[in-house]
Write a structure and sequence with these properties.
about 220 residues, alpha+beta, 5 helices, about 15% helix, globular
Length: about 220
């Protein structure tokens, strides 16, 4: 798969078990995610068009591993377990959170990642991003300094991704205040700061800041 993805794309596609990934995150080991993966395989669908994202799925949060992650990985902080399924193939923009995100690949997919320290005046250059391949069954932690958005598919069938975050992330803001710092202009939802490509109308209509500079690249498979 990696060989084919690198052959058909003009940007390198890197593995998450290599040195290139070390500043973006790490592979999570020692947890049994089989109950969550089984739920996703049997009870979640890939939409015909676009993506579907559910921040919190109560049935998934009842899984034994969810409690273990809350008490161990997140040090007792409350978490939410949800998923993102879809057919995305383009960069579109980037988001980040204050707190690590766990992604569990129910299918193979690619991730387009950057670093928050590469943001300049609320803008980010497409050319600074790197692309990573995540193999089915792999769980990764993405650090809070890692820019990311939706996975990109590597087959016609689309992708399935389990997403675990601090509780309340990616939900509507209850109190929107005037920005104190420039970063405040990027705040779109609770614990969700976003830089969007100006041509990505769904994000722009939601109020995302149009700060992604360059071509909205499409990844091929």
């Amino acid at each position: 798969m990696m060989e084919r993805l690198n052959r058909v794309n003009t940007v390198p596609v890197c593995p998450v078990d290599g040195r290139e990934f070390e500043t973006y995150g790490r592979i999570v080991k020692g947890y049994d995610f089989s109950e969550l993966i089984s739920y996703m395989e049997t009870r979640s669908d890939i939409p015909e068009n676009g993506n579907v994202y559910l921040p919190s799925v109560p049935e998934m949060e009842q899984a034994q591993v969810a409690g273990l992650l809350r008490d161990s990985f997140y040090g007792g902080m409350d978490i939410q377990v949800g998923y993102c399924n879809g057919r995305n193939t383009t960069y579109n923009g980037f988001e980040y959170h204050k707190g690590s995100e766990i992604n569990i690949a129910v299918t193979d997919f690619m991730l387009v990642l950057g670093h928050t320290w590469e943001i300049r005046d609320n803008t980010y250059r497409v050319e600074d991003a790197k692309v990573f391949f995540v193999e089915k069954g792999t769980a990764i932690e993405m650090y809070q300094t890692t820019l990311h958005l939706s996975p990109c598919r590597v087959t016609d069938k689309g992708f399935k991704d389990i997403v675990i975050l601090p509780r309340g992330t990616n939900t509507p803001l209850e109190n929107r205040r005037q920005p104190v710092e420039e970063e405040g202009k990027l705040l779109l939802q609770r614990n969700k700061w976003v830089i969007a490509h100006p041509g990505r109308e769904p994000l722009i209509r939601q109020g995302a800041f149009p700060g992604l500079l360059g071509e909205n690249r499409e990844l091929k498979y």
